[in-house]
Specification:
Radius of gyration: 22 Å
Number of helices: 9
Order of helices and strands: HEEHEHHEHEHHEEHHEEE
CATH architecture of one domain: 3-Layer(aba) Sandwich
Helix content: 25-40%
Shape: globular
Amino acid sequence: MSLYATDPAPPVLAHTLLSQPVQNARDPNVPTERDCNLGAAIGNGIQCSSDTLFRPGIVIGFSRPRKRGTDNDDDHEYIGRIPRHILTTHLLKRPSPAPDSFNTFIIHPFNLPIFFPQTLLTSLLSSKNPNLSREEAISRLDTVQLLPVYDFPAAMQAITQVSDTLHKINQQRQNQQANNSNQEPVVLIIAGLDTLVESVIRASNPIKGTAVLNAASRTFTRLSREYAAFLSVLLVNTTGLGPGTGTGDVVADGDYQGEQLSVLLPSLLMKTLDQGTDTHLLVSRERGRAKGVGVEVIKDRVGDWLGRRCVWDGL
């Protein structure tokens, strides 16, 4: 029989050639499965490690699918659950808050309820810390500076104010490095910026609205890079992504990666919002679970979390 007439060799799967499972070269504890549950990452909150989802030095966006009709307070409530949990975890990790020392800044529309003081206090008291008294919770909230704003120019002014404060914090921490002082993270939450820029669009045109939003995006991105050692920026979008034809419920086994991501970003304004984030999470209602929200990483240009999803039943 001719050599060239023999049957081809059977296919061999690559993993059968490995003598042992391959671990993550950066950290063996980091899961590498693409369907990895996000619950642990959300539960741990912000950590100063390059392998974690929530960490200093990047901008993380939170959005929800746009629903038919008008928005209501319940829509705002479920988009705020995970950012509020991350904030609560951040506040509880700090051993003893120093007086007149801010470690969190929240810029939000004055009528957005998800970051009202009473809402934040309720989240702290509902945490899994049985030893946390009401007085201690209030003491920890004293490290949070709320900056409610009425319009987009006021939001830009608030970002500038926070920038000045971050510069002072950075100088203080550089002076403390000689004493091996522990560098605690600082959190900047900017909520409802998309809602505020819509007022600019109504008063002028979409081009101007996109331009001012792009300027704001460059500002908080620059802050996240300049103070990458300790600053984590959370951008909470409240108007929703998509053309408004969905129900706001999470789709079973839905996947918004790749080409399908363009469905969520049909306008220049939405694309500008997405471009301002390093990692983007889509938060949706979970059918059949009153308190559960579906979470999917629809963009991650600084890590390997893209496509991972979970159902979050936390705070």
